[in-house]
Design a protein that fits this description.
about 210 residues; Nucleotidyltransferase, domain 5; 2 domains; alpha/beta
């Protein structure tokens, strides 16, 4: 089986194609490219190169966040379109599970903006604590409760010391999807993990001048 995996939840677009034969796995293609929140061309270029190098996959996997609002939308749309066009199974896996942290466990932390961080605890490729929002002060309390665990984030967070900058890896997501956890398999469009509504500027109220007597 060949699994094409992608993640665009962070500032790095990760694309990989991994082959699984019995107990052996072989990374056929891997590309990690910096990309801006407003430009997902690196992701689509990586997908094109992966298919050119490896041929059509047998399944797809996409990171579902949390992370960049625009990046998640682009990645999920690309994966859903690809899976629909080729009639392939699609797995959606939370992006922090693709972080290359220690198997014994680590913290994943991110900037949720608006004065909040998101935080999760991961052990052996699974959540012990799912991503949830906290204030920076509350985040530090959580981190200090298990201070011996590594702390991984895709961005710098000024309140947190000993932070390791790391981004989700598509190879790791492909390996997780190969285990065929039914909770990751989706039949429609995957729901991105948004921990709070995206910030949308409300339009100004339209005011009308009072009617004047003729």
């Amino acid at each position: 089986m060949k699994i094409l995996a992608l993640d665009s939840s962070s500032s790095v677009a990760s694309v990989a194609c991994v082959s699984f034969v019995e107990e052996k796995q072989d990374v056929l293609f891997e590309r990690k490219t910096p990309h801006a929140r407003s430009d997902s061309s690196a992701l689509f270029e990586g997908l094109r190169e992966a298919v050119d190098a490896c041929g059509a996959p047998d399944a797809l996997c996409v990171g579902s966040g949390p992370g960049s609002y625009n990046g998640l939308r682009a990645g999920i749309a690309a994966a859903r379109g690809f899976a629909t066009a080729l009639n392939l199974p699609l797995h959606a896996i939370p992006s922090p599970l693709g972080l290359p942290g220690p198997e014994k466990g680590f913290w994943a932390v991110g900037d949720a903006r608006g004065g909040h961080y998101w935080i999760a605890r991961i052990v052996q490729g699974a959540f012990v604590d799912s991503p949830h929002l906290l204030s920076p002060e509350e985040t530090l309390i959580h981190l200090n409760s298990l201070h011996d665990l590594a702390i991984l984030s895709s961005t710098t967070l000024p309140d947190i010391k000993h932070l390791e900058i790391s981004t989700p890896c598509a190879v790791r997501l492909a390996i997780l999807s190969e285990k065929n956890d039914p909770s990751f398999l989706v039949t429609g469009t995957p729901e991105p993990i948004y921990l709070k509504p995206p910030h949308i500027t409300a339009p100004r109220a339209i005011t009308t001048a009072p009617a004047t007597a003729s």
